[in-house]
Amino acid sequence: MRRRFSKGVIAIIAIVTVLAVAITVGLLSLLRKVTPLVDLGEGCKITTPEGSLELDLEQAKVAAVIAAVAARRKLPERAVVIAYATGIQESKLENLTGGDRDSVGVFQQRPSQGWGRPEQLVDPVYASGRFFSALVKVRNYRKLPLHEAAQAVQRSADGSAYAQHEEDGKVLAAAFTGRVPKAVHCWFPAPTGKTPLPDERRAARELARALGAGSAFEPSSRKRGWLVAAWSIAHAKEFGLGGIRYDGQAWTAAKSHDGWRADPKASARKVDLS
Asked: What's the pTM value of the predicted model, to 2 decimals?
């Protein structure tokens, strides 16, 4: 026998259902506003059609510098891939202050072998420049197997080890050269207490030092613009940047975990920092 409910019972069920939905919506809204219980820390994710990688902020800064120095020298993406694969093998893309014997820096270059003074080699701009200067002297380096080109520069004990990092090098190169837009997403906790003022002038000086351009934030092409945007997001915490806007996209430090978001007011002619 089918049970029939009275109109009063049906009304009560309806009211309870509405209240349950309202409470659920309210709780979800509240949870969005409060600080997450899980500390998401800081880091960067690189996402391109070639694949994806995760870096810490220091690795991302080094990667951004390498791409900028290559752009200053008008080198092809293949040179950047070789540099990344070499840096990953030598230091995991970290700017080390020591290493085997007198090796230092991201490429573990040795002062005793004529690469430069230790204080120079721990400067990623200088170290990258020295690496590329040696690479372009390698005959047909663009067509050589990656490990052969890298070994011709590094002359390490086991040159074959560079080959294992070629695919990761391609992912990083596609992102940091700007060929793939908004491919670099970095995040870090929002500053607590008094927010430091952004040091845009120092950021501009450092970018110009790597990129070799007086008006670095007014790029000559969309690809170069995304290179600048990638460099900026990797260095955002260091220079206290609150936001980056370019090419219809925006990133803000306050919501850094959200990544790049559409912003129709973001210019395609200039990378704006705030």
From this structure: 0.84
Question: CB-based contacts of 153: which residues, under 8 Å, 6+ apart?
Answer: 86, 131, 134, 135, 138
The edge-to-edge listing of strands for the beta sheet with 43-48 is: 51-55, 43-48, 184-187
CB neighbours (10 Å) of residue 98?
12
Between CA 155 and CA 101 the distance in angstroms is 15
Q: What percent of the chain has pLDDT over 90?
A: 71
Q: ∠ CA(99), CA(152), CA(227), 5° rounding?
A: 75
The tokens 């086991």 sit on which residue?
158
Task: Return the residue matching tokens 């210019």.
Answer: 267
> Which residue in 196, 189, 185, 202 sits closest to 251, CA to CA?
185
- The secondary element (H helix, E strand) that includes residue 271 is none
* Among 47, 86, 56, 34, CA closest to 172: 47
Reduced 3-state DSSP string for 174-192: HHHCCCCCCCEEEECCCCC
